[in-house]
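Appendix C reproduces, verbatim, an entry submitted by the partner laboratory led by Prof. M.T., so that reviewers can inspect both the input and the predicted structure.
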Amino acid sequence: MYLFNQLLFPRGWFGVEAVVFDMDGVLVNFNIDSRRIKTEIIEYFEARGFPKGLLSPALPFSKIKEEVERHFSSEGMHKDQILEILRAAEGMAVDHEVEAAKTTRLLPGAKDTLSELKAMGVRLAIFTYNNSKAVRMALERLGLEGYFDAVVSRDQVESPKPNPCHLRRVLELLGVSAGEALVVGDSEMDIKPAKELGVKVAAITTGVRSEEELRAHAPDYIINRLPEVVEIVRKG
């Protein structure tokens, strides 16, 4: 079947060689309260000496950790002690994510969209801020692990999204250029790195941001349903 599809849709046929998906809010619902988790982690940092009231759960987890590391370093805390604190916080987040992976559900049209793109010869990948252990559990439980040519989680890159290094690593693994890829995401965490690298991005309204909020970040496309990705790819 793969060989037949490659003959029917040779590489370059559609212009889009690869589609890179965010995971939570795009393909699946992790049913996880990120704000509550970040609040717990902030309280942990404050208990370890970080000044109260300076961190907000509205910040990305990566930004929270950066601020904590910067503060403790400026206070003269030993590097090993800082790393121990950050590892403990990461462990708290992972525990929540792994638990959520046990009840993660597919969003409407996810499997059909992946199947259709795969049949068209398009390479598929995930770049997600979820931890790799939770991602692996969710993909296996939902029967999605065989669809993807690359899956890169936050703990598998030095600087996760919105840093463009995360997306750049995915493109390297797929063997495609920025101009040959399409990112599908539900927030500025996905839009920002895509635009920085020159990758077209489709922002979907099934996740954490409204259409109005997504438009403020100027994605190339706004979609309301995942199957619309197939039409974007077909049009090149």
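Residues 79-101 form the longest helix (23 residues). Additional entries are available on request from the coordinating office.
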